[in-house]
Amino acid sequence: MKNNELTRELKKHFGFSAFKGQQEQVISSLLSGKDVFVLMPTGGGKSLCYQLPALMSEGTAIVVSPLIALMKNQVDAVNGLSSEEGIAHVLNSSLNRVQTKSVMDDIRNGKTKLLYVAPESLIKDEYSDFLKEIKISFVAIDEAHCISEWGHDFRPEYRNLKQIIDKIARVPVIALTATATPKVQDDIQKTLGMNNALVFKESFNRPNLFYEVRPKVNVDKEIVKFINQHKNKSGIIYCLSRRKVEEFAQLLQVNGIDAMPYHAGLDAKTRISNQDKFLMEECNIIVATIAFGMGIDKPDVRFVIHYDIPKSLESYYQETGRAGRDGGEGHCLAFYDPKDIEKLEKFLAQKSVSEREIGLQLLNEVVGYAETSMSRRQYLLYYFGESFDPINGDGAKMDDNSLNPPKLKDATKDLQIILKLVKELEEKFRTKELINIITGKESSITKSYKLENHKYFGIGKDEQDNYWKSIIRQATVQGYLSKDIETYGVLKIAEKGKNAILHPQEIVFLIAEDREYDLAQTKADIDQIEIKNGNVLDQNLFNLLKELRKKVAKKLGIPPYTVFMDPSLEDMTVQYPITIDEIGKIYGVGDGKAKKFGKEFADFIKKYVEDNQIERTQDMVIKQLANKSSHKVFIIQNTDKKIDLEDIAKAKNISMDELLKEMESIVYLGTKLNIDYYIEDNIDEDLVEEFMDFMKESESDSMKVITDEFGDDLSDEELRMLRIKFISDIAN
């Protein structure tokens, strides 16, 4: 197919005048019957690579997707492109018999061009038998990284896709993913039998995203402050646990912020309702679990906050990639506390050997990213096998390290102290115990091993504990030390560390000093590198058009962005289109959309133009279109950027903190309380034993004393639970 014919089809269906990146080559290859493998970052236009050829081809394209929520969004979006209904459908367990029959009828009648299915659905005989009878144009496998156990979101049911597809039809296959390291790419291709596929790899660079990592201090206040600085903007906040999602969503609500929780533990009705409120712009903030992937294809998410650091850089990249998908502002803020990493390592200790090894390797990369002093964009892209120029590359100043470089300190001598100490103590100790020796603090461990007489006891007492923690973390990230996951957290010397002891003169070990974060200053720095577009847009009309879009979307029961995207509304404020024909020439508006939604918008803009006496000569509009100035706003924008104790608390509608206060009151009044079942499931038994021994000798049960001793290994919540157990078991 000729290029200009493809471009005409693109304009007709999607309203775009030109393809992005390698979209055109991908689509041409697929239409010519070849297998295609696409690696393209979130927001790079992956879905168009199979949606457009499906609309152009005879028969129905099958799209395999892991998330029901994501399918729903995409079906809404595709159906919004056409004035006819039934162009796209979902076929999965959420449909009843009548709905399933209606979908199958539309497919048989040739109406349906895109059929979204979950891999589990394809296994069902009733579905696979039906699909064998109809004409399939091709199969698209979205989120293809789910195939690889080295990927961040491995789904076992994805492993059998090749055999299932071969049974249904011999057609071209397009596999797509936004996050895949070279190892994962190789695994995907081998498993799908796509070694001869044409591979199209776009840059993983998202220049409109600003990356920032802050220490996890006063995190609740910091996030509330951040949201208040980004009023009326859409954002997603990721937390590791369902409980934290619930608690933090409540905290935001109490602070006057429209926020909804979203996790797998919510009943389906609530979960769908909360997601729809976010998509329909009835609430600005969604608080979600990292573990439960949110299939949200919302183009105008302006910030993504990680309350807890994720378990892999792939997860992090994909989650941050939900910001700024329309090319506009996207602020990616993560809060990092090494204790969170230790907690994740502790959970890994309970997994199988292979899962542990993979998990630990992925976790080390996350620590490296959080603690790096180099450009965060450069670090991320290197992880995905791509080089980046941190001085002149696209998006070079869009991260905190580039804007405000941390100071580096030569810690080579201190690294040698750590390595020699680990070696002399025969690799038996964890981080906290090593730091106690170096800083000269006596503990039950130092006493039992008589370490007060060791030559390194107190050698580093002039530095803070955090300094030594940082050295040990960086030494682990850089491969001098490794953690023995079998005996949770015990440090061993890696091959590189052994060489460093033998040849100390050959190494230089630099670490980044802890940085003071000034929230207002960081924002000011970012503002300096944004290009404001207020002088181009009619901001008043833009706000009114957003309200009109919301009203139209509510009436039709679809998300606002499926009516018109923000860049399209922005272009309307430059062009002032007052007819359906002129709406059809707006950036991102195709013929179907213009016919479906255009009249209401054209009439509204016409009245606005008259009421405000805006000079809108037809000549000017034609001239602008001829100069392709419909791209202008988009270009300006592109240069602008997550019965047990939780259930008890939930049943009483109280937070975990309030529940623990109640429990403390009970045991301190002399009543026994058995929470061993919860502790056994959630806290390492060696740490429980160590805690009980410590408390028997301690002169105080104050949280300060307990935190000083165990704060590196256990959270405040876990320590309070253990104190409740101690008072109940021993004192009572």
Shape: globular
Strand order of the largest sheet: 3-4-2-5-6-1-7
Named CATH topology of the largest domain:
Rossmann fold
Number of helical stretches of at least 4 residues: 35
Topology:
Layout: H1 3-14, H2 23-31, E1 36-39, H3 48-56, E2 60-64, H4 68-79, E3 88-91, H5 97-108, E4 114-117, H6 119-123, H7 125-133, E5 136-141, H8 161-168, E6 173-177, H9 182-191, E7 198-201, E8 209-215, H10 219-229, E9 234-239, H11 242-254, E10 259-262, H12 268-279, E11 285-289, E12 301-306, H13 313-320, E13 330-336, H14 338-348, H15 353-371, H16 376-383, H17 400-403, E14 408-410, H18 412-424, H19 431-438, H20 444-448, H21 465-477, E15 481-484, E16 490-493, H22 495-502, E17 510-512, H23 519-529, H24 539-556, H25 566-575, H26 580-583, H27 591-611, H28 618-626, H29 632-639, H30 645-651, H31 656-668, H32 676-682, H33 685-697, H34 703-710, H35 716-731
Parallel strand pairs: 1-6, 1-7, 2-4, 2-5, 3-4, 5-6, 8-13, 9-11, 9-12, 10-11, 12-13
Antiparallel strand pairs: 14-17, 15-16
Helix pairs in contact: 2-3, 14-15, 15-21, 19-21, 24-25, 24-27, 25-29, 31-35
What features would you describe in this structure?
This protein has 732 residues and is an alpha/beta fold. The protein folds into 5 domains: 3-201, P-loop containing nucleotide triphosphate hydrolases (Rossmann fold, 3-Layer(aba) Sandwich), CATH 3.40.50; 209-403, 3-Layer(aba) Sandwich (Rossmann fold), CATH 3.40.50; 409-512, Orthogonal Bundle (Arc Repressor Mutant, subunit A), CATH 1.10.10.10; 539-639, Orthogonal Bundle (DNA polymerase, domain 1), CATH 1.10.150.80; 645-731, Orthogonal Bundle (Arc Repressor Mutant, subunit A), CATH 1.10.10. The chain contains 35 helices and 17 strands. It has a 7-stranded parallel beta sheet, sandwiched between helices. Helix 8 links the parallel strand 5 and strand 6.
